Amino acid sequence: MSSKIILPRVLQIGGGASSELGPIMIEMGLARPLIITDKIMVQLGYCDRIQESINKLNIFAEVFHDTVPEPTVSSIQNGVDKVKHGNYDCIIALGGGSPIDSAKAIAILGKYGGKMRNYKFPNIVDKPGLPIIAIPTTAGTGSEVTKVTVITDEKTGEKMMCMGMGFMPSVALVDYELSMSVPSRTTADTGIDAMTHAIEAYVSKKSSVYTDMQAISAMKLLGPNLRQVYQNPYDANAREKMMLGSTLAGIAFSNASVALVHGMSRPIGASYHVPHGLSNAMLLPTVTEYSIPGAPDRYADCARAIGAANYNDTSDVSINKLMDELVSLNRELQVPSLKEFGVDGNHFLTNLQTMAKQAISSGSPSNNPRVPDIEDIVGLYRKLW
Ligand code: NAD
Predict the structure, then answer these.
(1) What's the pLDDT tens digit per position in 300-335?
(2) Residue 72 and residue 148 in contact, taking contact as beta carbons nearer than 8 Å
């Protein structure tokens, strides 16, 4: 059996990678960019820095800096209008997963029109939008190398998963130096998000030898460095490993898919505005415990790769060590419970069926090594509470 692997055309990886933007644009014949980013990137000076670097090559960009964390249909509308009426030949997406996902949606809606809802899974979007050059600043979502965008429909309260080659950036400039300024809470949340991508890609029913190799490499980079970047944000070596780990985890899950943690995480994010990485972190121990019987040896491999177990530990010992590690990681990274985060218990407990239906319809739970039905998911949400 063969596997279809979809990647950006160019990956530039390492310290200073973002300064290669101008030369790469020239190589690709791109000259009229729109930068899509958020206000923090402007405040940090990253947006100016990017503009100055391309101005030297006589390339001038307009900027849309109104993207919001966990983008919604209405938050991207002004960007869509700008692309419809502008004469851009590419988009530079600068920021965490939110600006990059916003850019992906804007690149398609700006070119083809229609409503975001028309593009959500199970529809697959393979037609190309405006080419995207993605510059991630969190480590992270891996969105710079994934054929996925996640946009919330604020009218229905659904985080819509949209997939297809059309959402794959043409270029990813993976420059860990831009992640040095990420605050500790976001460092923890995004780092656990990347770890979850790697674990879920590895245990996914759609994994392949190729994605296994990416996922294991990602876990080896992320496992030993996650606590380190949380405690020592200016450790450049650890930041570099986290950034590469996040990109490799993105390649792994984009080509193998995520599973139950992500399926259950999106509805929590949509209903209670819990940041994506944080809701993954809250769910990871509970969902892993549920899923282990479906692929015990694979979870044991994960335990060894992240450094929780030794290579001579048996599968049973490794799995126990994995569970201990996930629980202590959440404790050390101060991941709050839903209640501590401020979720209203009465609302949460009456919302279980709706969230479980949304989880199933995203398609992700069916890739899990142990496939749950709606009642299983309701039970897991209840257990999480
Ligand atoms: P984010 O982009 O929402 O950023 C979180 C906060 O950190 C923002 O306030 C942002 O301005 C700030 N920030 C980002 N980089 C910074 C830096 N270098 N220094 C200081 N502050 C910085 O967070 P995220 O976790 O990267 O992205 C989350 C979004 O990505 C969610 O909408 C989620 O659904 C989506 N996602 C997409 C994919 C995909 O494959 N497309 C995968 C996973 C998650």
Answers:
(1) 999 999 999 999 999 999 999 999 999 999 999 999
(2) no
CA 149 to ligand 1 centroid distance, Å: 12
Q: How far apart are CA 294 and CA 303, in angstroms?
A: 16
| Nearest protein Cα to ligand 1, atom 30 | 97
Gap between the Cα atoms of 83 and 91, Å rounded: 9
Q: Is residue 86 exposed (0-12), middle (13-18) or buried (19+ Cβ within 10 Å)?
A: middle
pTM of the model: 0.97
- Alpha carbon of 42 to ligand 1 centroid (Å): 15
Reading the block at residue 348, the tokens are 């949460």
DSSP code, position 120 = S
Q: Whose CA is nearest to atom 40 of ligand 1?
A: 143
Instruction: Spell out the domain ranges in the chain.
Output: 10-179, 184-384
Mean pLDDT of the chain: 97
Interacting residues of 248 by C-beta distance below 8 A, sequence separation 6+: 142, 198, 214, 215, 217, 218, 221
* Structure-token match 């809802």, residue found: 117
| CATH class held by domain 10-179 | alpha beta
Distances (CA, A) of 349 to 191, 257, 302: 28, 29, 32
Of the candidates 233, 259, 223, 229, which has an alpha carbon nearest to the alpha carbon of residue 372? 259
What contacts 210, CB < 8 A, 6 or more positions away? Answer: 3, 5, 255
**d(Cα 9, Cα 129) in Å, to the nearest integer?**
15
Name the residue of 138, 181, 280 to mutate for ligand 1: max ligand atoms within 8 A of Cβ: 138
What's domain 184-384's architecture? Up-down Bundle (1.20)
The residues lining ligand 1, judged by C-beta closer than 6 Å to any ligand atom, are 38, 40, 44, 69-71, 95-98, 101, 137-138, 140-143, 146, 148-150, 178-179, 181-182, 186, 190, 193, 276-277
pLDDT at 1 over 90: no
- Angle separating helix axes 315-332 and 296-306, nearest 10 degrees: 50
| 238: confidence class by pLDDT, cuts 50, 70, 90 | very high
Distances in Å between the alpha carbon of 305 and those of 241, 250, 311, 321?
Answer: 14, 17, 9, 12
Whole-angstrom Cα Rg for the chain = 20
